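Final report, Chapter 2: Outcomes

The project's central promise was a pipeline that accepts a single protein chain and returns its three-dimensional structure in a standardized token representation, suitable for archiving and comparison. That pipeline is now operational. To close this chapter, we reproduce one record exactly as it appears in the project archive, with the input sequence first and the structure output second.
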Amino acid sequence: MSSFNNCIKFDLDIKEKNIVFKDYFYKMVQMKKHKIYEAELIQPACPYCGSLALLHNGHLVTNIRYLTANASLPVIIRLAKQRVKCRDCDHWSMAQSELVNKYCSISNASKLKVLSALTEDRSMTSIARENNVSINTVQRVLGNCSHRFIDSYEYLPSS
């Protein structure tokens, strides 16, 4: 199982140690063939106190859109995030990952690919189609980084 897990991590270029891949299969979603990977995100310790005494309380399954080299075969990671309660400090928490932001279903790698495609002279529709995301997602990625490019007029001389 470990070599299977390592092969999938190498194929998807994921370096997160707390993600364990279990299986993959093909499925038709909205009349389009998708490659779906099943994985579990493990919480090794309490994020509040660092204790290892955790009480496991199920999983939250999220479908994460991940980038792919072949736009005609989208990749979805069905990630089961562990929910735990710390026995020492009584805090509830859910496993977090660098793969995707909290409360988001589009991977950070996909967002970076969309952002790099926005630097080219292309339409948002073609960028969305190539990355298997919606046009609204492309606009949201652009809006999240546009504050870095706004010119400040405070340094101009007064007229």
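Archive annotation: The radius of gyration is 20 Å.
This record, like all others produced under the grant, will remain available to the consortium after the project formally closes.
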